[in-house]
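Q: What changes when 5-O-phosphono-beta-D-ribofuranosylamine is included in the input?
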Amino acid sequence: MKKIGVLVSGGGTNLQAIIDACENGIIENGKIAAVVASNDKAYAIERAKKHNIEVEIIKRKDYDNISSYSKAIAEYMINKNIDLIVMAGFLSIIDNNLIDKYQNKIINIHPSLIPSFCGKDYYGLKVHEKALERGIKVTGATVHFVNEEPDGGPIIMQKSVMVKNDDTPEILQKRVMEEAEHIILPQVINLFCNDKIKVINNRVFIE
Ligand code: GRF
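A: The predicted holo structure follows.
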């Protein structure tokens, strides 16, 4: 049984999808052992508590820099013997003080088809605003391993979503969450917990 640590900052709909997938058998051989929040206002905290999942609040603003913050998260996850770290709507930047200790064991969900609309400053609603501005017809979500480049790690799984004529950023964000993010993130976690994901020369192969 692999132990999962989930990093959150906001509403926690992706965390909820993981919780539900653990409870309904979509995720096998994996269990959420802890949720770490970057602030104490995240509704994701309430979602975790409702399911008796341990919550640790490690506030970004309590640390002077990214390095000390990354070290604090790494220390917590190692002490909890976490096998897989999942960034689920996590908005803080982390560095090699965490990444190096969890090589290809940290995954992130991004609300676009990487390499489009990703990287520094592309997060949350802004991703969908830029996508609509560009007039793209197909968007979606990507689950990738986390490395030192924002949204630059090996891509594990993607799922497309059609853009509709009357989409606003908010409508599109909701559809991408419901029709892509909340589906592929649990699927990737299940594959990881069952050792079905291999990375060769920075490319991901699913067995
Ligand atoms: C989602 O769009 C996710 O792709 C991004 O953060 C947003 C909020 O996620 N990383 P959640 O509802 O807090 O899981």
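Observations recorded in class: Strands lie at 2-8, 30-37, 55-57, 84-87, 106-110, 138-145, 155-162, 197-200, 203-206.
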